[in-house]
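Repro:
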Amino acid sequence: MTAAHRWILATIAAATTMAGCSSAPEAAPPASAPASSHTPTTRPSATATSAFCLDLSTFQVGVIAYSAEVGASIEGEPLDFEELRRKAVLIADMGERMQASAPPDVAKHFRTVLKAIDTSAGHLKPGAKTRDVVDPVYGERNRPAFDAVNDYDCGAAPQGKA
């Protein structure tokens, strides 16, 4: 990945994080809604203050950064095993903390993405075939999960209002 690509990803990450932070206070104040309306539910929910929603944009950027670097190998760029392993560990650590509060409508996809990155990273060793690193991330089997997690928006899921 070139320095320009890294700069673009960093800019996207900063913008996404700032957007997530600036919209969180707006989502939290509707405390005038009846608090007991959803309390009996024991299932995780996509509230603006859940670990899943608080970390989602950062997680999405991490997955995009990992995917982009892995994808560059399709075009012949060498894989930076150490950097990809580092990103995979960061994604796994964040994902572990988020998993308990993942909303039911995206939880299965979220677990699939975590497993796919773990599988991909497990092949990051000398002599590995590029296909073994790329397929878990870009293969047809897991692609819908990556798309679902990347497109997921906590603010849109529970509210239904703009």
